[in-house]
């Protein structure tokens, strides 16, 4: 399953029982490849290095180029300061993939693992980074994803698929991944931003382990961030997303 979701599922147990968990066996939604790949020639556009399709409605000036993808990710040191805990473990993936089934309303499943479930074949560059205190035992899990398309239209198509106009109807829905159950609460859904919460449900009620999530579309780029902890991760999430967005702006 997705490292962020695995963090959701096992961290609540590690918080209360401090059990050791093998997490990278758990990275089945995004794989365990490290950066160095992560550039995917779009099937209906140029190679990843060209940055924009000839038919793109995004101008070369506006398009965010693949070589900027990694710079949009907020560093482990900065994220540690924002969540108030030293995050020593870092995982990376450069390919979106899915193999762990999600049980629940089909149109809501992307909220469980944003920018991984079905990103199409027109993406050019993918970055997925997750931090936590330790690989096996942790009390915070933070995930950032950056997904670049060859054109603004391609990015918009995928954003609209993952976060459609009726995504607010997912509030109250429960999604199940492996043995864990999560209740969705959509806070905001607009044409350029989605914000929602996943609460772990145990014995029919919230366990206290909560993940705050946000996704954005900016030109030909989709980005998302997830902060999971026992407490309010909202301020840290906002700060991380603000920094990611700022990094997309021209220097």
Automatic annotation (TrEMBL):
Region (Disordered): 40-62
The species this protein was found in: Mycobacteroides chelonae
Regions of compositional bias (Low complexity) in chain numbering: 41-60
InterPro entries: PknH-like_Extracell (IPR026954), PknH-like_Extracell_sf (IPR038232)
PROSITE patterns: PROKAR_LIPOPROTEIN
Domain PknH-like extracellular: 66-246
Protein name: Sensor domain-containing protein
Organism domain of life: Bacteria
